[in-house]
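User: Hi! I'm working on a homework problem where we have to compare a predicted structure to a textbook description. Could you give me the structure for the chain below?
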Amino acid sequence: MLILVKELQAEVQTLKAEVVRLTDENKKLKEENAALKIKSTSRNSSMPPSKDVTRRGRTTSLRKPSGKKQGGQDNHKGSNLKFEQSPNEIVNCYVTKCGCCNGDVAASEQTVVDRQQVIDLPPIIPIVTEYVKYSAVCPLCNAKTLSTLPITEVKCKVQYGEQIRSLITYFNTRQVISKNRVQELFSDVFDISLSRGTIANIVSESATKMSEVYNQIKQFIQSSRVVGADETSCRISGQNYWLWSYQNNKATYLYVHPTRGSDAIKSQFPDGLKRSTLVTDRWAAQLKTKSKEKQLCLQHLIRDAQKLIDRYSSTWARQLQKILHEIIQLTHSSRIKEQAKEEIEERINQLLYSPLTNSAENIRKLQKSLVKNQRAITTCLYDRAVPPTNNGTEQSIRKMKIKMKIAGCFRSDNGGQSYAIIQSIIDTAIKRNIKPLLAIQNPSIIFA
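Assistant: Happy to help. Predicted C-alpha cells:
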C-alpha cells in the first residue's frame, strides 16, 4: 500500500511539472499569436511609411501636437521671383499706333509705365574647343621643344570636358537619375551622345578625384564631439552589402562593406570614436564601439514601445513612451533645470527596475536592454550638442534606398564605393551651405 501511495505521489509531481510546462508553452504561443496579429508598420518599427501597404485610412502620427495651427504660420515670409536691376537684354516695346484712331504715334514722346521680366535659358549647344600643339627648334642648342596645353587632363584626341563630367556625376548621384535616363537627358537637352559605360567611367573617375577630400571628411568625423551612426542594406553584384553612415551637422562619411557586424566598423575606425558621443540605435555592433559617451535614438525606442503597446497593450511601454517624449521636449528648451533632469532620471530608474514577472517576454527583453544602456538614454539632457534622436543619420542613408529602387543594384564594389564617396562630398557640402554641383566641380572648397 505504501509503495502504491509513493507511486501515485510521484505521478502527481510529474503531472504537475507537465502542467507547468504546458502552461508556459501556452503562454508563449498566445504571445506569438498576438504578435502575428499585429503587423509591423512605420509607427512601431523602422519600416518606412512607403511599405505600409496594408494600412487603411489615415495613419496615426507618433508626433505630439505642437499647438500651432495647420499650414503657413503668421510670421512666415513669402517669396517671389527677384526683379533683376541689371538684365542681360532690354527690349523697348514702343507704341506705334493709336489704340483709338489708329494714327501714327511713333514720333510722339513716350513715357515708361511698367517693366516686366522673363527669365529663360538660351539654346544649349556643346562648345568644341580645339587645342593645337606646336613644336619649335632652338636656334642655340638645336633641341626641339613641344608646346604645353592650358589644361592638364587631355588624355586622348577627343574627350568630354569638366563641365560635362561634373553634370554627369551630379545627375547620376545627386539627382539619382539612372544611366539610361542620363543618356536620354544629354541627347535631348545637349545633343550629346553618351554610352552607359562612359557614364560609369566618368562617375568612377569623379570619385577618385574626390578621394583626398573624402579622407579629410573621415578625419573630421573621427575628431568630432558628436557623431551619429547607422547602416542600411544595398545590393552589389547581386550580393547583400551595407552602406554605413557616420555623420553630424557638419559632415557625412559613407562607405560600403559586405557585413553588418563589428568588422565593418573596425575597417574604418579600428580604435572606435574615443572623442565622440555616439548617437545610435541599439544595434549591438554600434553599442560595442568604443566612444566617450553614447546616446540611444529615442525615436527608435518610441517605435519599439509602440510595438509593445500594439501587441500587448503594455502599460509599462506607455509609461516608457511618455518619458521619452518628455526628454525630447526638454531638449527643445533653451535651458533644462536640474530638478527636471533629476525627476526624469528617477522615473526612468523606477520604470527600468519595476518587476515584470507576468509580462510578455519581449517587454522583459526591452527592459533588460535599457537597464544595460540606461546612461545612454539621457545623455542629451546633459550635453546640449547631443541630439535625442538619430534622425540626421537616417536621412543621410535615405538616398541609398532611392538609388536601389531606381538602379536595382551596383554592378561592382567600385560602383558602390564611388557612390559612397560622391554622396559623402555632396552631403557634407550641403551641410556647409555649398551647392552640390560646386562641390562636385571643386571638392576642396568644402574645407577651404
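For your comparison, note the following. The longest helix spans residues 2-37. The mean pLDDT is 89. Good luck with the assignment!
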